Amino acid sequence: xxxxxxxxxxxxxxxxxxxxxxxxxxxxxxxxxxxxxxxxxxxxxxxxxxxxxxxxxxxxxxxxxxxxxxxxxxxxxxxxxxxxxxxxxxxxxxxxxxxxxxxxxxxxxxxxxxxxxxxxxxxxxxxxxxxxxxxxxxxxxxxxxxxxxxxxxxxxxxxxxxxxxxxxxxxxxxxxxxxxxxxxxxxxxxxxxxxxxxxxxxxxxxxxxxxxxxxxxxxxxxxxxxxxxxxxxxxxxxxxxxxxxxxxxxx
Length: 251
Hints:
Layout: E1 5-9, H1 16-31, E2 38-43, H2 48-52, E3 61-64, H3 81-86, E4 91-94, H4 97-103, H5 107-119, E5 123-128, H6 132-136, H7 140-148, H8 156-159, E6 163-166, H9 180-198, H10 200-205, E7 208-210, H11 216-223, E8 230-233, H12 240-247
Parallel strand pairs: 1-2, 1-8, 2-3, 3-4, 4-5, 5-6, 6-7
Helix pairs in contact: 1-12, 7-9, 11-12
């Protein structure tokens, strides 16, 4: 059985002190909660060690928002997968649409980053998704298929360690949300692409999250769809109550 996962992506928000406080709030709410999903927070690099010190990782997973494709060396400002792992983190977001859009990340880089993450026992949350123009001109399935191909150098065993997150870029931070049916259609397409490459067993075991203005008000409808296994949550993850409202959508 594949896992249900709700992962928060804090993006470039909160100071270390604010982040520790937010992590403690989420951790406290999870302490006595019965959840039907794995819960993860992905935080800025600066926060990882401090947040790791205050959470119970049996209840709350910890991840970074990115890592370098390089192991070490003269790459000022970069943070390697090994560095991320050394903080106690066990997840890393790769290929987020903002990284693709603002920093020009491409399939070749993301394939390398994924390999580095896996080599350091980090679980990649690998993002795919189309922009509004691609949604409107009908090329969205092809766009997402080509983004998934960055992972196709992995063995079936290694691919099985990756979580996929579908983020319709036109729905991120815009207040627009893909309908539950639109999300289901794309998630089913992603699962078919994986099945065509790695077989039905691997595809059926892959968790595919929805990211794109997921809130407590729409999470239950989205998560009820058969191929939607949780969410990659942006804005709503910055308040403990709204984040937990999404976690509770699985109850």
